[in-house]
Design a protein that fits this description.
heterodimer; A: alpha/beta; five-stranded mixed sheet; five-stranded antiparallel sheet; about 15% helix; globular; B: alpha+beta; eight-stranded antiparallel sheet; two-stranded antiparallel sheet; 3 helices; 11 strands
Chain lengths: ~325, ~180
């Protein structure tokens, strides 16, 4: 889920995403008066504090090291211009409104099933981010071991996801899960920004994927990147009407990279931006296996009753341009 | 746009299935959701109101609900729950992934509580199911039910024919069945 390409497409995506004033998917955006603005930082480095609070097996210093490593991973994306700076330890918890950006552990009963969460406080008259905090749930078992630790969630991995939100990215739907009696597990993912936790012990998610890199480059892309990246635009329709909330995945035949997007308007239009030029296959599928509130403000509008389809033509994404408009027709279940 | 695509579909699936990874929420299967929630109800949102909490240290939103039917537990005809974030004056606090409610919404909610504080949604937004009325087919619950029926893991394939928004009555029956399974 990424945007970069023409300004018009970016605006269109946000307009649709922000039907009610705000939400978390693709890029985070909100309505400011009659304008729609994306939630993103305009001053760098992003200065952050770390809560001076330990959990079993992890000291505050280790929290800071894991968080700093995660920030550094985002900062190192060559096609984006980001920077961050550790500002010090604080006694403040991450769920408190303090006008400081704080990351740290806390125990909040209403978030018991949540490993980590990011919150923003925004001035709705200007769209300015006043603070963005990241909560890590102290009731889980955590690890900062370089190779991970059985039975414990990797703090750096979770921090990498949350810092993606902190920079303005929403959730990606590039992931698969399986079900068994009494449980559900992640079996595959193509993005750090996929919202469901993988089993404890894994450190695979310390590494950004193509989808994450496309997203962050859309928000903070270098001028050189913006001149070379391409995009795919189109519509998804069912019975002649636009489909809202379809998941569209672009698969690069040369690199094997996957980048996802969504149809975000009543007419079913979509844009997948920040793509490497090349040849792509497009798949359209319903989001019928996810917690829709984690993606959309208006979850009840999302159409999940159609069959997935692979678009029957290859799509050539030009350097610095947009592929020919793609019209995808899906069939009701 | 050119060339037909059939041959690449297999390569696509292989590629997608190769990578492992994770983050954020611990996913909850339906039976676990039923067992873990202290209260399950079908309700309509009457109103929402943001307020300061914890001595003005954080913002939360109080959601007042009119209960239509309790499937588990009992909290009265009108109840208030709390969700993270909300707007006070010109400042809005947003927690990514937290459910947002507006007056008039029709919902099935899985709730939990802790001590004397107000109830909250179990599993952040995983405990929220929205009731959508289709004029032709009646009331349906979305997202579709994710129910693990066997001990062997069954991959969730997007768009599988069997997975559809469930009629409200069938959803409620499934909840009652799961409660019965838990009791046995």
């Amino acid at each position: 889920m990424r945007r970069r390409w023409g300004a018009a497409a970016i605006v269109a995506a946000i307009v649709c995403a922000a039907a009610p004033p705000l939400q978390a998917y693709l890029k985070l955006g909100m309505q400011v008066g009659d304008r729609l603005v994306s939630l993103q930082w305009d001053r760098f480095p992003v200065r952050y504090f770390v809560t001076n609070r330990a959990v079993p097996g992890v000291t505050p210093q280790q929290v800071q090291q894991a968080v700093s490593a995660a920030f550094a991973t985002w900062d190192a994306v060559p096609s984006a211009t980001l920077s961050s700076q550790f500002a010090g330890f604080t006694a403040t918890g991450p769920l408190e409104n303090t006008a400081q950006t704080v990351l740290g552990f806390e125990d909040e009963p209403s978030l018991r099933q949540v490993l980590g969460a990011t919150s923003f406080t925004v001035d709705v008259t200007t769209g300015e981010i006043l603070e963005a905090d990241v909560f890590f749930n102290s009731t889980f078992q955590w690890s900062v071991a370089p190779a991970g630790e059985a039975g414990r969630y990797d703090l750096q991995s979770i921090a990498l996801h949350e810092i993606g939100h902190l920079h303005g990215l929403g959730h990606s739907a590039l992931g698969e899960t399986d079900l068994h009696a009494g449980g559900r597990s992640v079996i595959a993912s193509g993005a750090v920004m996929f919202p469901i936790a993988f089993s404890p012990g894994s450190i695979d998610e310390r590494t950004l994927r193509a989808d994450d890199i496309a997203g962050i480059s859309d928000l903070y892309g270098t001028s050189a990147f913006k001149q070379t990246a391409g995009s795919i635009a189109g519509t998804v329709r069912k019975n002649g009407a636009g489909v809202f909330g379809a998941h569209i995945v672009a698969f690069n035949l040369k690199t094997g990279n996957l980048v996802g997007g969504f149809s975000l308007a009543p007419d079913g239009s979509f844009v997948i931006a920040s793509l490497d030029p090349g040849t792509y296959v497009l798949r359209v599928e319903p989001l019928d296996d996810v917690d829709l509130d984690g993606f959309f403000d208006d979850a009840a509008r999302v159409d999940v009753s159609f069959r997935p389809v692979v678009y029957d033509e290859l799509i050539a994404v030009p350097r610095g341009g947009t592929a020919t408009h793609v019209d995808v027709t899906v069939v009701p279940k | 746009m050119v060339r037909p695509v059939a041959a690449v579909a297999g390569a696509w699936l292989l590629c997608f299935g190769a990578a492992l990874h994770a983050t954020v929420i611990r996913p909850i299967e339906f039976h676990e959701l039923v067992a873990g929630a202290r209260v399950i109800l079908h309700a309509r949102v009457l109103g929402v109101r943001a307020q300061w909490a914890d001595g003005r240290r954080r913002v939360e939103t109080l959601v007042t609900l009119e209960a239509e039917e309790y499937l588990k537990g009992q909290l009265g005809e009108q109840i208030t729950i709390r969700v993270p974030g909300g707007q006070l004056g010109r400042y809005r606090t947003i927690m990514i992934g937290a459910p947002a409610f507006t007056a008039g919404q029709d919902l099935v909610l899985f709730l939990d509580s802790s001590g004397p504080s107000l109830p909250f949604v179990f599993g952040l937004s995983q405990g929220v199911f929205r009731v959508v009325v289709d004029p032709a087919r009646g009331a349906f619950v979305t997202p579709p039910l994710l129910e693990g029926r066997t001990t062997a893991p069954q991959p969730l394939v997007r768009g599988a024919m069997g997975r559809q928004p469930v009629p409200l009555a069938a959803f409620e029956a499934a909840v009652r069945q799961a409660i019965g399974d838990t009791v046995r």
